[in-house]
Predict the structure.
Amino acid sequence: MSPLSSPAAVHAADLVVFGGTGDLSMRKLIPALYHSDRDGRLAPETRIIAMSRGGLTDADFRGKVDADVRDQVPADDPAVWQRFLGRLHHVSVDVGGSDRSGWSALSRLLAGHEQRDRVFYLASPPMTFGPFCRELEAAGLVTPHSRVVLEKPLGRDLPSAQRINDEVGAIFDERQIFRIDHYLGKETVQNLLVLRFANAFLEPIWNSLWIDHVQITVAETVGTPGRRGYYDQAGALRDMVQNHLLQLLTLTAMEPPARNDREAIRDEKVKVLQALRPIQEASEVDRFTVRGQYVAEGAMAGYLDEPGSTPPTRDSERVETFTAIRAEIKNWRWAGVPFYLRTGKRMPRRVSEIVVQFKDVPHSIYPGGSPNRLVLRLQPEEGIQLHIMAKEPGAGETTLKPVPLSLSFGETFTTRVPEAYERLLSDVLGGNPTLFMRRDEVEAAWRWIDPILAAWEASPELPEPYPAGSPGPAGAHELLGRSGRAWHEEA
Ligand code: BG6
């Protein structure tokens, strides 16, 4: 069994998706479930029950999935597709209203199936998490075999995250709560652990004696058209750093766990978050963090004039669509090694990668060398590159050239790379929470993020503008430039 592999998940289950006709469901969850079905990972009796305000019948919902999802998946076997459609149900629910008929309809549908695994997937706004859990309990639907899945954002700061955790925790035990960060379902993210803990050569040099610094970048070319309502309240720090980038940081920096099990791995991750040096004084926030907002460039709109959005407000001007942070982990392994985090919308190219920059040779006998660098490419073109110095062929003076030793997952493995949600849904159905965030983990992440948010909110300054399609504001380059370092920008 490979590290982090999950048990086969073929128990009969009822998966109830709140927000079941929404964007996440139609673009990610339903296609992922179809793939699971096709690969034989859903028991014959497993049902998928979408809850929404929509007023749809089962037949309407099946028709909608047939129309909207079929083109997204290889529905090459009509029998499998029909079997999958047959699993789908729809229940209309009056969220926050007085009409109880939706809850009764759900109860009727679930009645008699109490022994099945029951998964309540809350793909709905976080303020609905507590109320939905209370409704489920009041309707007597929470069984010992139930689990609840929480989509991000899990709050907007530590107090709101704690409130959500308390509300959900009043109904479900921590072992039943699955907090999703879809980055943990990505193949290459899991490969990072395999690379670190199933190979002997890296561990002796994975520390401050050998490593100069680490860069974690998640750059996107997309902007935020149509998302201002959400994004004005979030910004890059809440939307990407508090979850995805900090998760990547913990997996890069954690100690080797004693066992490949849910608690051992999460214990080590949480220790990294707890060891992050707080950035709290305004002067430190100024020095170690950068925020930017994209402005119009050529045909590309700026954040404030993205089409299809609600009109900008005062909040919009202050929202960061880019951030870079110099983080430090105060422990024996990492003391003195900066971890640079960077994420932005409307960057020149889409790339997610972890770059581990080694120290230079202690004494160089050749001119022109540069230190080794390990690049873990999470997306696109997943792979690992180790940049080493080699001699350029030639009879004259020795000339050095950095060349990559390259592993491309796409070329090495011919099997289909599953989408992150496929793996995560399989794990939820199989009851394996290793790749989900534990309460203490989410709260430790907010504890580190909150002072930065507070300092930004108190600052009279606006985010630094950067042209859409450019590599971010000048401040991000200064953040590394001050110590003679630079962002890894290779194609
Ligand atoms: C989501 C954010 O969590 O992750 C989005 O809310 C972002 O703003 C997305 O675009 C990026 O995910 P991926 O898998 O495309 O890198």
